[in-house]
């Protein structure tokens, strides 16, 4: 998925909204509609761009798979089929999410307003939820010794740290000649470096980096190629083959490889296995991600509006996902390990994450996810000049 010419005979797909996403997960802030009767800013003012339903659909479906994967985790020790499905989903759900994050970060630079959104939409939610998760573990898991440390992300907050680092490095990936091979080399080196440690969850930051860089390099034409009918048809046997391979590999391979949080040595294998597995999993993840995108609806669906709330669902569902372990729900209801129980768990996870992405939840938690914090930043000189000119006209 590198730069390519527009496919012959196909119409160029519209670009996504130009603004950088305000939140950490790839959910660009919906364009604000002017109040009734408000005049446009000037004669050259352009109407707000519409959100692309394809990307909102993809983000919603990906976050549903994230929630299902967390709900399946306790079942994998008792069901080989659940383990196989878990491995396949983990092979592409976060890579797809990260790739979209990279795609919507293409316009990021060190401009003041974009740095401000990076702080308010990524750094501040990280601090708030890292503290909230740590306090939750102290109380719900009866673990008073659990530290509150902003340097050691716990559970889901690693993604916010990673996105903050990735987005800051975006200008670098724009100027290097071979960004994707370079990012892959970084990921490979990380996979064989056990001394990196847990600070800022750098193993995940570095090992997932290639997917972000691929997103930076992608163009609308690439998504058009993945939406073609033949790709959709081909993706069905690809997914079936992936499930069969995962079913065979389930008792032979640790699913920890898909988390990308440990080096090969920490997983108890030789260093060269890290090189092989990093490259192999990158290839498999890209293929499965392309198959996933091929089946994402292009038109507006009932869940399209939920695509703007994926960060809310992602961070909030973690309390229930972890709480179900702390409170022993899976141990108290052993029928959950049966096939019907596994289906029930999947449906509940999908319903919960859907509810947490809804506009009412977004409004309730916007203070933590998308705080304005205008008091914390200097006003841009150009913006001040425009304000003065409007007030005097």
From TrEMBL:
Keywords: Membrane, Transmembrane, Transmembrane helix. One of its GO terms (molecular function) is acyltransferase activity, transferring groups other than amino-acyl groups. It comes from the Bacteria. The chain crosses the membrane at residues 54-72, 84-105, 117-136, 148-166, 231-250, 270-295, 302-320, 340-361. InterPro entries: Acyl_transf_3_dom, Nod_factor_acetyltransferase. Residues 53-357 form the Acyltransferase domain. Residues 1-48 are annotated as: Disordered. PANTHER family: MEMBRANE-BOUND ACYLTRANSFERASE YKRP-RELATED (PTHR37312). This is Acyltransferase 3 domain-containing protein. It comes from Streptomyces sporangiiformans. The lineage of its organism: Bacteria, Bacillati, Actinomycetota, Actinomycetes, Kitasatosporales.
């Amino acid at each position: 998925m590198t730069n390519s010419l527009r496919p012959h005979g196909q119409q160029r797909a519209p670009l996504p909204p130009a603004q950088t996403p305000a939140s950490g997960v790839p959910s660009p802030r919906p364009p604000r509609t002017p109040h009734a009767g408000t005049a446009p800013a000037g004669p050259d003012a352009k109407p707000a761009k519409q959100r692309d339903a394809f990307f909102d659909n993809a983000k919603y479906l990906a976050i549903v798979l994230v929630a299902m994967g967390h709900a399946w985790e306790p079942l994998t020790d008792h069901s080989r089929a659940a383990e196989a499905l878990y491995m396949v989903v983990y092979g592409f759900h976060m890579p797809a999410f990260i790739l979209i994050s990279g795609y919507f970060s293409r316009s990021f630079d060190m401009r003041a307003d974009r740095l401000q959104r990076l702080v308010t939409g990524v750094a501040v939610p990280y601090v708030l939820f890292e503290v909230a998760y740590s306090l939750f573990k102290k109380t719900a898991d009866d673990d008073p010794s659990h530290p509150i440390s902003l340097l050691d992300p716990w559970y889901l907050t690693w993604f916010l740290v990673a996105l903050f680092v990735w987005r800051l490095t975006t200008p670098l990936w724009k100027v290097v000649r071979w960004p994707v091979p370079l990012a892959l080399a970084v990921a490979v080196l990380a996979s064989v470096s056990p001394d990196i440690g847990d600070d800022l969850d750098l193993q995940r930051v570095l090992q997932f980096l290639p997917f972000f860089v691929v997103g930076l390099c992608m163009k609308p034409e690439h998504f058009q190629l993945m939406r073609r009918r033949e790709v959709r048809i081909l993706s069905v046997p690809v997914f079936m083959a992936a499930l069969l391979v995962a079913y065979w590999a389930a008792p032979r391979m640790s699913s920890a490889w898909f988390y990308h949080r440990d080096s090969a040595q920490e997983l108890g294998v030789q260093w060269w296995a890290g090189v092989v597995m990093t490259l192999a999993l990158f290839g498999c993840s890209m293929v499965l991600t392309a198959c996933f995108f091929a089946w994402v609806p292009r038109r507006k669906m009932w869940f399209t509006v939920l695509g703007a709330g994926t960060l809310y669902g992602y961070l909030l569902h973690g309390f229930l996902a972890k709480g179900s372990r702390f409170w022993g729900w899976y141990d108290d209801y052993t029928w959950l390990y049966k096939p019907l129980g596994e289906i029930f768990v999947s449906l509940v996870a999908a319903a919960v994450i859907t509810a947490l992405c809804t506009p009412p939840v977004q409004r309730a938690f916007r203070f933590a996810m998308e705080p304005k914090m205008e008091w914390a930043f200097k006003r841009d000189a150009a913006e001040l000049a425009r304000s003065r000119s409007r007030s005097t006209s």
